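anyone seen this seq b4? input:
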Amino acid sequence: MAGILGFGGYTPKQVVSNDDWAQRLDTSDEWITQRTGIKRRRFVAEDETTVDLAAAAAELAIDDAGLTASDIDEIIVATDTPEMLTPDTASFLQQQLGCREIPAFDLGGSGCAGFVLGLDIARARAHLKPKVVLIVGVEVISRMISLEDRSTAVLFGDGAGAVVVGPAPGRARLLAATAGTDGAQSHILNVRVGGTRFPFSQATIDDGSVGHLIMDGQGVFKHAVQRMSAAVEDVIGQINRTVRDIALIVPHQANVRIIDAVRRRAGLEPDQVYVNVDEYGNTGSASVPLALWEAVETGRVHSGDLVVLTAFGAGFHWAAAALQF
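predicted toks r here
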C-alpha cells in the first residue's frame, strides 16, 4: 500500500501578464488567450533558483504530512531546468532541507511527464521498501528558453509542486499508474543544444541555438491528446473503474486546447477537469503537482473522490496515475 501523505506548491511572486508580453513582442492578450488560454504566468526573482522553488514546495508538503525533513527516506526531483548540469538538483535540495544522507536524484529529460513518472517510482518504493519519499516537480523555464521567440516564450511560467508518499493510505491512496515512451517522436519537442549530439560551442551561442526550445505544435497536439486520453483509460481500467467514476482529472497544463481535446476524447464533462493554466502558464514538470495542490487547497477534492493525473512530455513520454482520496 502507498499513499500521498502531504501536498505542497509554490510560485514566484513576479506576475507576467499577456499585456506585459505585448509590450515586448509582436503579440497581444487576445492572440495568446485564444491560442493557449493563458492570461498570466510567474517568473522567478533574480536571486531565486530551481532549488529555492523546490524547497518551498517541499517544505509545505512535508509539513502537510505532519513530518519533518529527517523523516524523508528518498528524494526525487522531476525537472528539465536543473540547478546545475552536475550535480543534480536533488543534491542541493537534500542539503537545503536538512535531510539525512539519503538517496536523492533527478528525473530529467522526460519533460512535463516527469512528476507523474516520479510518483510511480515513489509508489513502488513506498510499497516494497517501505520508504517515505519526497517527489518534487519544479521548473525555472524563464531562464532556459529564448524570451524573444513569440511562439514559445509566452507559453511558460516558473513554479514547483511537491508530494510526500509513504507506506500508508494517507490523504490519497495511490491505486494505479501507467506510462509509456515513443522515442520516434523525440524530434517534435526538444532543447537540442547542450548534449553530446549538439554540444555547446561558440557557433551555437552566436546563432541563438542555446536555450532554444524546438516544438512542432501540431505534432505535439496530436500525440499529447492521443497519449494522455489513452493513459486515463488505461489507469482507470486497471482498477475496474470508468470515466463516470472520476471526480476530477488533473492534466498537464500545457494549453486549454489540449486539455479540452483530452477531456472530449476521454468522454469527460467540463466540471471533471481541473484547469489553472490561465493563471500560471505551462510550468512543465511542476504543472501537475502544482494543480493538484491547488485543487486540494481550494476544496475541489473531497473525501472519497477518485482523481486521475495525466501528463505528456518531450521524449515523447506520457504517464497517468489514479488516486483515491
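The chain is about 35% helix and 25% strand. The chain has a mean pLDDT of 92. kinda curious what u guys think
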